[in-house]
């Protein structure tokens, strides 16, 4: 089987998993709601209007991570992976098709989420966001969408290594919500290169440190590439 038929098959799998629709719906709803709440609270002095308008990305990314983890973990239930590999014997090709099928909806959902969240947060900020230029707004929205997509793929790669969506979520959710920020406060500048801390620079108007918005996303992309490489190795070397 060629790559295009394999990709079509993986896309059909994603379309039939209701839990994935739920994850994407939660991504839009949670991110937009938190951005609206953050935008309504403009009492904080010196706030970053771009980061505030898109602050719902922080809790909303859990849904993106869940989407990537659930899409891959479904293959490790009921012998599904064995059936998939019987149809696509070239394991690297199958994993590339799977991750591409994950990336498409993640990017589309990320763009919709970023636009909705920014609109809600911007409306709440009112005059406080008047200083944002069109270029900064576009960069924040596109950067947020790319960040969510990368985190979904990061989770997909890690799930292929751990062979468990539960294990992936148990590792990543505490990390992005708690551990990364605790380590960041204690360790200083080195944590700027953690996957979540680096990628979230894309939604900040002002930033200090070595990385900028796009270089931060590049660091997150490197983490994602490493996770996907490890996932591909696991699929190729371990029994189905």
Largest sheet: none
Q: How far from one another are the termini?
A: 18 Å
Q: Enumerate how many helices there are, as a single number.
A: 10
Strand content: under 5%
Rg value? 18 Å
Q: What form results from the Cα inertia axes?
A: elongated
- Alpha-beta classification: mainly alpha
**Mean of residue pLDDT values:** 88
Order of helices and strands: HHHHHHHHHH
The helix content, as a percent range, equals: over 70%
Low-confidence stretches: none
The tally of strands reads 0
Summarize the structure.
The chain has helices at 3-16, 18-40, 49-53, 57-73, 80-87, 91-125, 134-162, 165-187, 195-199, 213-237.
Features:
77% helix, 240 residues, 10 helices, elongated, single chain, mainly alpha
Describe it for me?
It is a single chain. The protein is mainly alpha-helical. 77% of the residues lie in helices and 0% in strands. It is built from 10 helices and no strands. The chain has helices spanning 3-16, 18-40, 49-53, 57-73, 80-87, 91-125, 134-162, 165-187, 195-199, 213-237. Helix 4 packs parallel to helix 7 (134-162), helix 4 (57-73) packs antiparallel against helix 8 (165-187) and helix 7 (134-162) runs parallel beside helix 10. The two termini are 18 Å apart. The mean pLDDT is 88.
């Amino acid at each position: 089987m060629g790559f295009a038929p394999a990709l079509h098959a993986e896309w059909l799998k994603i379309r039939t998993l209701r839990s994935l629709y739920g994850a994407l719906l939660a991504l839009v709803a949670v991110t937009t709601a938190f951005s609206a709440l953050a935008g309504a609270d403009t009492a904080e002095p010196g706030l970053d209007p771009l980061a505030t308008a898109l602050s719902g990305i922080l809790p909303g990314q859990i849904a993106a991570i869940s989407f990537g983890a659930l899409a891959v973990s479904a293959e490790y239930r009921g012998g599904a992976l064995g059936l998939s590999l019987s149809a696509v014997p070239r394991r690297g090709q199958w994993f590339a098709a799977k991750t591409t099928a994950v990336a498409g909806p993640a990017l589309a959902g990320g763009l919709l989420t970023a636009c909705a969240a920014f609109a809600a947060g911007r409306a709440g900020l009112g005059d406080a966001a008047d200083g944002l230029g069109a270029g900064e707004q576009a960069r924040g929205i596109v950067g947020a969408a790319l960040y969510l997509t990368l985190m979904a793929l990061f989770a997909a790669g890690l799930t292929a290594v751990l062979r468990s969506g539960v294990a992936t979520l148990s590792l990543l959710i505490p990390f992005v919500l708690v551990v990364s920020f605790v380590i960041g406060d204690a360790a200083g500048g080195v944590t700027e290169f953690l996957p979540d801390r680096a990628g979230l620079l894309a939604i900040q108007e002002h930033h200090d440190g070595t990385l900028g918005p796009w270089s931060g996303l590049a660091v997150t992309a490197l983490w994602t590439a490493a996770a996907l490489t490890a996932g591909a190795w696991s699929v190729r070397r371990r029994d189905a």
